[in-house]
């Protein structure tokens, strides 16, 4: 398969999942992938605008904080942008937050939910353990700080463990399937499908932000606010805004300039 078959592959698609591009090696940030992956995402987004402009797009390629804005700008230029249909896939952050919380709180992971908001890189990943269900009163503030850091560094932990052989693959396949399935359920009219995703947002002053969204027949039906935050989470929110804003602007600038 190559560029020749791209149009044929996309034609008629309801959901397009983009995992194309290079993964990290130890010592790299997700932003270090920008130079290669930005062009790949731009080309694929251009083809989506042409061949399946109504599809829901699940962006996995990193840096998600920049690749989602790149796709948005490409779609705007093509006149096909629908903010309800573009998603940065942050499900793996939720999977990690749930797993680490369940282990520490001693509850079955299948019963756990933890919203993760912000973006998908380092400190921009903000798990809201104060809203975790079922609630746990056995966790100390030190535990919450450690769980937050482990969730934020989860991708880097895998990259280092794989020592040059790429980043998370199996867990990403699971997370990608969970999110794509949620999109399909929404398209099929299943009610109350809610997942976290990095979408166009007015939840903060930033144009894109991850939070809980309700999925439906048109894609995003509702973007939920952040709810009540602990002081630690409020601080995390303020701390992430600068980096997230810069990553979003970098994507927009690239889309306009190339
Ligand atoms: N959002 C998330 O939570 C996660 C994102 N990722 C990101 O997913 C991306 C892919 O990672 P891996 O699958 O581990 O890498 P990989 O190297 O195993 O696979 C990348 C694939 O992209 C393909 N590709 C390259 N250029 C392409 C193009 N122009 N059009 C179509 N396909 C193209 C390659 O042929 C290859 O099959 C990376 O950017 C990685 O950082 C990975 C894990 C989690
Ligand atoms: O860390 C990486 O490079 C891949 C990724 O986004 C993740 O595993 O969360």
TrEMBL record:
A cellular component annotation (GO) from this entry: mitochondrion
Keyword terms: NAD, Oxidoreductase, Tricarboxylic acid cycle
Entry superkingdom: Eukaryota
UniProt keyword NAD, yes or no: yes
Reaction equation(s) it catalyzes: (S)-malate + NAD(+) = oxaloacetate + NADH + H(+)
Single Gene Ontology BP annotation: tricarboxylic acid cycle
SUPFAM superfamilies hit by this protein: LDH C-terminal domain-like, NAD(P)-binding Rossmann-fold domains
InterPro entries referenced in this protein's UniProt entry, alphabetically: L-lactate/malate_DH, Lactate/malate_DH_C, Lactate/malate_DH_N, Lactate_DH/Glyco_Ohase_4_C, Malate_DH_AS, Malate_DH_type1, NAD(P)-bd_dom_sf
GO MF term (any one): L-malate dehydrogenase (NAD+) activity
Residues involved in NAD(+) binding: 37, 60-62, 172
Record: residues binding substrate: 24, 30, 62, 96
PANTHER family found in the cross-reference section: MALATE AND LACTATE DEHYDROGENASE (PTHR11540), MALATE DEHYDROGENASE (PTHR11540:SF47)
Family note: Belongs to the LDH/MDH superfamily. MDH type 1 family.
Subunit and partners: Homodimer.
Protein name as catalogued: Malate dehydrogenase
């Amino acid at each position: 398969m190559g560029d020749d078959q791209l149009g044929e592959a996309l034609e008629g698609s309801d959901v397009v999942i983009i995992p194309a591009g290079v993964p990290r090696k130890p010592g790299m940030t997700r932003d270090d992938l920008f130079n290669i992956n930005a062009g790949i995402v731009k080309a694929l987004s251009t083809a989506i605008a042409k061949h399946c402009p109504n599809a829901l797009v699940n962006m996995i390629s990193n840096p998600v904080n920049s690749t989602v804005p790149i796709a948005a700008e490409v779609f705007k230029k093509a006149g096909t942008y629908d903010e309800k249909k573009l998603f940065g896939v942050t499900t793996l952050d939720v999977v990690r937050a749930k797993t680490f919380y369940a282990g520490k709180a001693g509850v079955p992971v299948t019963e756990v939910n933890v919203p993760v908001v912000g973006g998908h890189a380092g400190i921009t990943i903000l798990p809201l353990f104060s809203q975790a269900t079922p609630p746990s009163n056995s966790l100390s503030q030190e535990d919450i700080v450690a769980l937050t850091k482990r969730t934020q560094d989860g991708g880097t932990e895998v990259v280092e463990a794989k020592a040059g052989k790429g980043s998370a693959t199996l867990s990403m396949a699971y997370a990608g399937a969970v999110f794509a399935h949620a999109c399909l359920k929404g398209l099929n009219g299943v009610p109350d499908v809610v997942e976290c995703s990095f979408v166009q947002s007015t939840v903060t002053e930033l144009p894109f932000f991850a939070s809980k969204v309700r999925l439906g027949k048109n894609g995003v039906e509702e973007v939920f606010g952040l709810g009540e935050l602990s002081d630690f989470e409020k601080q995390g929110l303020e701390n992430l805004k600068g980096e997230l804003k810069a990553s979003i602007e970098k994507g927009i600038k690239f889309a306009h300039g190339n």
